[in-house]
Amino acid sequence: MEKLHFKYQATQPIDHPVHIGVVASGDLEVIMKPTDKTESELNIVTGSDGFKEVWQNVLTRFFARYPLLADFEINDFGATPGVVNLRLTQAMEALKDEQ
Amino acid sequence: MERLAPHTLIRLSSRAALTAAGALPEWAEAMLKEAPYVIVRRGAQVDRYPVGLRGYQKSERFAAFVTADGYSDPVTPQQALTLLPQLDPVRAQLPAFQKLVQLQPLLQDFDWGVGGSLQFELVTGLKMARPGSDVDVIMNRPAQPLSYAAALRLVQQLQVIAGAHADIQVVHGQDGFSLEEYAQQRDRQIMMKTANGPQLTANPWHFAGER
Asked: Are residues B13 and B48 in the same domain?
């Protein structure tokens, strides 16, 4: 198990929390919460060690497209980059739907 | 070419039946010598089968392919479960296998089996399971969809017996979704794993995406 921490510059604050996905084989859950800080902080707990660079690539692409300002908690259980991307996008869409 | 469902274990006819984009890592070559079994993973089955290799460590996973006629003895999760009574009695004491025994009454009305390291050990006899191994239930999609309430009851009972890292994946051909995600109702759509990658769907019980 590995704990990863990332920070990203972001401009679009969220106004309510959202919780998407599940901690199941090949999957993850993502919890986004509003923050008072000026950048997004991500705390990731992953069952698959040694993928920091892969995470960074997926996240950098995501934040370039959707600069959501929030505290992110991600609990990963072996999700592929495709699943990570789908879950982040789904969380973003869920925020939009509820607004 | 025969269709093989994801999570089926197959026995390689020869080392040459296995191909990969690059050289196999050392642990993978060593595993194949111990037991020449690989797991069918999701993906198109045109002239070869996409498969995964696994080692003793969680980080030891490798994607490869098997030629159309390069295997024998396919073992589905359901068939693997029937091997449980033949398991070495000492190994059967491991909590993960005990949990599997305890799950049987709960799931008796379903067509289900076991995936992951428990399946691999049941089939190969290699000591793959650990005391804290996950219990991966693979359930064929029932003809009647489960209500949210019924799914939630099942998932909660599963977790009482098998702990937090137990999951039921409902499968139909190449497609599969997490019963827990369905039961949680966190979003109006849930993730469906398909041969062409993950996608979201609002109706997992009647999902008919690309095959």
From this structure: yes
Question: Looking at this predicted complex, what is its ipTM?
Answer: 0.88
* B chain contacts of residue A87, beta-carbon cutoff 8 Å: 191
- Residue whose pair of structure tokens reads 């137990």 in the numeric block: B166
How far is B187 from chain A, CA to nearest CA, in Å? 7
The alpha-carbon gap from B135 to the nearest alpha carbon of chain A, in Å, equals 10
Is residue B189 within 8 A of residue B203, CB to CB? The reply is no
- Note down the domain range covering B39: 9-75
SS3 state at A88? helix
pLDDT band at B132 (very low <50, low <70, confident <90, very high): confident
CA nearest to B167 within chain A: A24
B195-207: b (≥16 Cβ within 10 Å) or e: beebbbbeebeeb
pLDDT digits (tens, 9 = 90+) for B93-116: 999 999 999 999 999 999 999 999
pTM for the complete prediction?
Answer: 0.92
Domain membership of residue B104 (yes or no) is yes
* A27 contacts on B by Cβ (under 8 Å): 178, 181, 191
Report yes or no on B133 lying in a domain.
yes
User: Do A21 and B193 lie within an 8 Å CB cutoff?
Assistant: no
Cα–Cα distance, B209 to B146 (Å, whole number): 20
Q: How far is A88 from chain B (nearest CA, A)?
A: 12
Q: Is residue B180 less than 8 Å (CB to CB) from chain A?
A: yes
| Statement to judge: residues B64 and B84 lie in one domain | no
Domain annotation for chain A: domains and CATH numbers: 2-98 (3.30.230)
CB of B178 within 8 Å of a chain A CB? The answer is yes
Domain-embedded: residue B199? yes
Picking from B75, B107, B122, the residue at the C-terminal end of a domain is B75
Minimal CA separation from A82 to chain B, in Å: 7
- With contact defined as beta carbons under 8 Å apart, do B176 and B169 qualify? yes
Query: Which burial class, exposed, middle or buried, applies to B193 when counting CB atoms under 10 A from its CB (0-12, 13-18, 19+)?
Result: buried
Q: Searching chain A, which residue's CA lies closest to the CA of residue B197?
A: A82
